[in-house]
Amino acid sequence: MSAPTAPLATALARGPLALDGGLSNQLAAQGCDLSDELWSARLLADDPRQIEAAHTAYARAGAQVLITSSYQATFEGFARRGLGWEEAAVLLRRSVTLARRAAGRVEQQVWVAASVGPYGAMLADGSEYRGRYGLSVAELERFHRPRVETLAEAGPDVLALETVPDADEAEALLRAVRGCGVPVWLSYSVAGEHTRAGQPLAEAFALAAGDEQVVAVGVNCCEPGDVERAVETAARVTGKPVVAYPNSGEGWDARERRWRGLPTFDPARVGRWTAAGARLVGGCCRVGPDRIAELAQVLKNP
């Protein structure tokens, strides 16, 4: 099927949509090595077919929105690998093309969300889960704007400003997207009822309340148990549709570089999330196509 005929905001007004799950875990399941600092973005240059295959797996599982592989793709990160500005721009635009191709392999309408990850993702040192990088809002805006403009040129349906740890960076991102011509969603990474940087979620969500370019606000890359309260707060503060895509619930051991604990992601919770205002629902780290297929069925048969 070709690109959707209806804007994402129109579709959200009709009812909830299923997002995809973690791209990295699907790539790992396909045998890809993601140990590089560029993470999944490395494959944009080295093996783009793997990225398209991962997107296709989620689309076939029932995902109605695919998030591109550009989360950790930046001009600065590619420059460290010896790639010039134009070469990096080609790879950023390719991330949208690959998702669009995968969307075309299924019968249902599938929207493409171009991922704009936080500044800390470029640093590849885990600082996206802390925020407070020591940069001003203006400096963060200057960092994000070129990538935003390049991704917007590729024609996604929406820009996913995702895994944002800090309200200051959210302000910078909202400034950076002005005038790009593409709607956005703003999604924080949270711990309890605060951003990772410690700001109350009500204050963080309020930044987007009056911004017409923002079609949804919410949370991702968080504990499943933190979702329901965050959804309620986002809906109450902004009056906008809410996006929610938590991790599996397992914990990452940075020293041993492996996941610990048992998954707590449960598609049965989705009914409570949608009742609270969630309209874009999926998974993040360690949530694969099988779980998204279950979630999609719950959304179809509430």
UniProtKB/TrEMBL annotation:
The UniProt entry, under InterPro entries, shows: HCY_dom (IPR003726), HCY_dom_sf (IPR036589), Hcy_S-methyltransferase (IPR051486)
A single Gene Ontology biological process assigned to it is: methionine biosynthetic process
State the SUPFAM superfamilies in the record: Homocysteine S-methyltransferase
UniProt entry tagged with the keyword Repeat: no
Keywords from the UniProt entry: Metal-binding, Methyltransferase, Transferase, Zinc
| Organism encoding this protein | Streptomyces cinnamoneus
Which protein is depicted? Homocysteine S-methyltransferase
Keyword Zinc assigned:
yes
Q: Please tell me where Zn(2+) binds in this chain.
A: 221, 284-285
Residue span, Hcy-binding domain: 5-299
Q: Name one GO molecular function term.
A: S-adenosylmethionine-homocysteine S-methyltransferase activity
Q: What cofactors does this protein use?
A: Zn(2+)
